[in-house]
Amino acid sequence: MSLTDTLVELINIPSVIGDEEEITTAIEFRLAAVRPVNRLGNALVVGVPTGRPIIVLYGHTDTVPEQDNAAASVHGQRIYGLGASDMKAGLAVMVHLLESREVIDGPYDLVGVFYDKEEGPSADNGLEDVLDAVPWLADAVFSIVLEPTDLNLELGCNGAMNADIVFNGHAAHSARPWLGENAVTKAGAWLAEMHDRRPEPVEIAGLEYREVFSVTKASGGIANNVLPARFTLNLNYRFPPIYDLGEAEARLRDVASAADEVLITDRASAGTIPEGNPHLGRLEELVGGAKTAKQGWTDVARLTGRGIPAVNYGPGEVAQAHQVAESVPVENLEIVFQVLHDFLTV
């Protein structure tokens, strides 16, 4: 079966977050013919240590909800469908590498981890349970997360934090606003400041990350003729790997100091760069393209937080993720497969 055929097959198995059982079973059935498979709920660990250096490939099986784009189709040199880039293209490459006789007989113990619930809250991510249940995964000399990277090698990743930013006022009839305080307009000066705020570049190991604060949601008010007594906004903060969670929270609270309340609702550490790792150097030579900082959050952060050296490298296109007409070039699958095949057999 070709990489294209495998990707079409994977796209046509619905796996919206929370509904990953069918795709997990399909991958399990296919790979059990060539490797030991350990199923953990709706996650799979494919392969076991045999004494060779361990290299692990990671991919999540879930997608965001469909937008009338569930079925796969091939037009020219592109494959379309929900999850095509994020990240079933990466899953297809993983499956073919795990099936490769040259890789199986190569110098490394290749392991594939397929896990669920990546597209939701960080606390629900299925990879955490896998890492807890299979502690020898931490013995890997190198790990690769096959998220979309536009064929670039993306190192580290920004951390992510969300907070409710609350402005409190006092309700009153809109005909007599002087008897109350409007919580929405109270936030105006701070919102104007956030509107003008620009990303802050931060250089680490020659790579540029961008520290970004974004207001992404707002709610307040109960009726058209009542001054709102409470106005709540979501502040999304993307922070570079020079900050730990405590330092990141302190920076967020400083930026939101004009608010009456700041309630942290979700947080995920940044991912670090495995500087000096010899396998990183080998992969850099094989990729041969751009080496960039990962601006978004990926499970590289979850891995490096446990001391596991990991990077992002995958066939998907970043701009295609979560798009209605999501697609991936056929060529990208072939390129990433060949790069990783060479990486795993030399």
Please name the defining characteristics of this protein:
346 residues; alpha/beta; Aminopeptidase; Alpha-Beta Plaits; 6-stranded mixed β-sheet; 5-stranded antiparallel β-sheet; 11 helices; 16 strands; 29% helix; 26% strand
Explain this structure:
The chain is of the alpha/beta class. Helix content is 29%, strand content 26%. It has two domains: 3-156 and 271-345, Zn peptidases (Aminopeptidase); 159-268, 2-Layer Sandwich (Alpha-Beta Plaits). The protein contains eleven helices and 16 strands. The strands form four sheets. Strands 1-2-6-3-7-15 form a six-stranded mixed sheet, with helices on both faces. Strands 10-11-12-9-13 form a five-stranded antiparallel sheet. The protein has a three-stranded antiparallel sheet with strand order 4-5-16. The two termini are 25 Å apart.
Summary, kept brief:
Helix content is 29%, strand content 26%. It has 346 residues and is an alpha/beta fold.
